[in-house]
From TrEMBL:
Organism: Heyndrickxia acidicola
Cofactor: thiamine diphosphate
Coiled-coil positions: 274-308
Residue ranges constituting the Dehydrogenase E1 component domain according to the UniProt record: 16-315
Entries under PANTHER family matching the protein: PYRUVATE DEHYDROGENASE E1 COMPONENT SUBUNIT ALPHA, PYRUVATE DEHYDROGENASE E1 COMPONENT, ALPHA SUBUNIT BACTERIAL AND ORGANELLAR
The protein's name in its UniProt record: Thiamine pyrophosphate-dependent dehydrogenase E1 component subunit alpha
Length: 330
């Protein structure tokens, strides 16, 4: 049974955010293939429960760092889907004025420090944010989302070691989606569980079903409480699966279609959530339908907003390159 702490309002919010991410990504896939979106996009479909479960334990004051597959984290943290959509369309009304695109969305007002095109690029950003929290003695936490492939980068070990040495309020969330680009986990990583690597730094860890928002939320809440009480960092490994290719248009010759279909049939986070809340009568069909209609309306509005927004002017490419000068008073 669901813990008493999980209210119906939280359940509704989980479904709303997971479905909003799913519909956003499906729309991006469609619009990219139609030629409406420039650059490359990497979709978060199938991993929604991890981002939502973790971010639902955070406030706007808490920080997250993301990855090249960052739309889901951004939306889970509370970003405006209209501005997200406009950014992917390369429009001036986007979060980065259309200059960052899919892999570089940020919204400091909600603690989203930025998606990152560099694999493993978020570790030391999150550690730096956590160090600032410690120095300011503020009631915050920093979260670093990363994939299984990034755990083989040097920044993983540098970041975890420094966080442990300084006992920083940071949580490392591994979204183990089984694939580092086109390479399966077992061919490039010497351990089956990324979480065991935390022992090298005297750091506690936990492995959870990353497609079960209840399990992710529970583990994240414990880690957040631990960090904010001054007990240091935690590593959470969320076992999930990357349903879509590494990027939209990926021919996916490295795996079978049957494998993907089986994952969606047996391990889809949205399907698992619906089965549980309906079986335990936690939410009604009417409540779920209302959320679905709200999400569809918001996605339609986001597409219209993006398509109607202007492109930045060519000369604006030279703006926002440097921070504005501040007057220093003696």
């Amino acid at each position: 049974m669901v813990e008493a702490a999980v209210s119906s309002e939280r359940l509704k919010d989980w479904y709303y955010r997971m479905l909003l991410i799913r519909r956003f990504e499906e729309t991006i896939n469609e619009k990219f293939l139609a030629g409406d979106i420039p650059g490359f996009v990497h979709l978060y479909i199938g991993e929604e429960a991890t981002g939502v479960g973790v971010c639902s334990t955070l406030t706007n004051a808490d920080y997250i760092t993301s990855t090249h597959r960052g739309h889901g984290h951004t939306i889970a943290k509370g970003a405006d889907v209209k501005r997200c959509m406009a950014e992917l369309y390369g429009r001036k009304t986007g979060y980065c004025k259309g200059k960052g695109g899919s892999m570089h969305i940020a919204d400091f007002s909600i603690g989203m420090l930025g998606a990152n095109g560099v694999v493993g690029g978020g570790f030391n950003l999150a550690v730096g944010a956590a160090l600032s929290i410690q120095l300011r003695k503020s009631d915050q936490v920093a979260v670093c989302f990363f994939g299984d492939g990034a755990s083989n980068r040097g920044t993983f070990h540098e970041g975890l070691n420094m966080a442990a040495v300084w006992n920083l309020p940071v949580i490392f969330v591994c979204e183990n989606n089984q694939w580092a680009s086109t390479t399966p986990l077992h061919e490039a990583t010497a351990v089956t569980d990324i979480a065991v690597r935390s022992a090298s730094y005297g750091m506690p860890s936990e492995i959870v079903d990353g497609n079960d928002v209840f399990a992710v939320y529970e583990a994240a809440q414990k880690a957040v409480n631990r960090a904010k009480q001054g007990d240091g960092p935690t590593l959470i490994e969320c076992k999930t699966y990357r349903v879509k290719g590494h990027f939209v248009g990926d021919p996916e010759q490295y795996r079978t279609r049957e494998e993907v279909l089986n994952q969606m049939e047996t391990n889809d986070p949205l399907k698992k959530f619906l089965e549980r809340v309906l079986a335990e009568k936690l939410l009604s069909d009417a409540e779920l339908k209302e959320i679905e209609e709200r999400v569809q309306a918001e996605i339609s509005e986001a597409v219209a907003f993006a398509e109607e927004s202007p492109y930045p002017k060519p000369e604006e490419a030279f703006e926002d390159l440097y921070a504005e000068e501040e007057t220093v008073h003696a």
